[in-house]
Input
Amino acid sequence: MTQVLGAVPGGDDTDAKVLDAALRVLARRGTREATMDDIAAEAGVGRTTLFRRYTSKDQLFERALARDIGRILDDLAERFTTVTDPTEQVVIGFITGLRLGDHILFRDADQVRRAELLQALGHGDPSPISLGYKAVRANIAKAQAEGKIPVRDPDAQADALIHLMIGYLAAPSFAVDLTDPVAMERLARAAVAPILTGTI
Output
């Protein structure tokens, strides 16, 4: 998996404080109700400082979400330097994606708020979802080129994997306890990894 954090510009301590505050406000109030004033107060910075750095709350939320998704993807990329089996990578990646449900944004969100937050993951340039898609697609193409998995359509495979994860984050599972790591691993091996290995 390729390093992706470079796609999201770095910042200083104030940026980090503001981005963390933006996520807390977004989790509490959602994209529609949250305001730049809320974020400034939460971060302990003035409105002027905030508007000097970000032109809108949407830009700020997009940046905060992309930063956190970039960190997750970078951690996976680092892990995948030692875990090279594609099936194991899918299992680890899928479980990591499902653990987004424990992220500050999703942890206490009801179904309506969760849907709103998932929709926010599709906004921005690059959007957090597109960062995930590109990283997964690159990893699939690499495994195919190395002969580790059958050559198929990495675009469609990456798209399916990302949308499966989003579906599980958006709606409760009817058959799998998504708080149980063993159950998540079983799901990933039985239903997700075969998308790459061609065993379905």
User: Anything to note?
Assistant: The first helix runs from residue 13 to 33. The two ends are 24 Å apart (CA to CA).
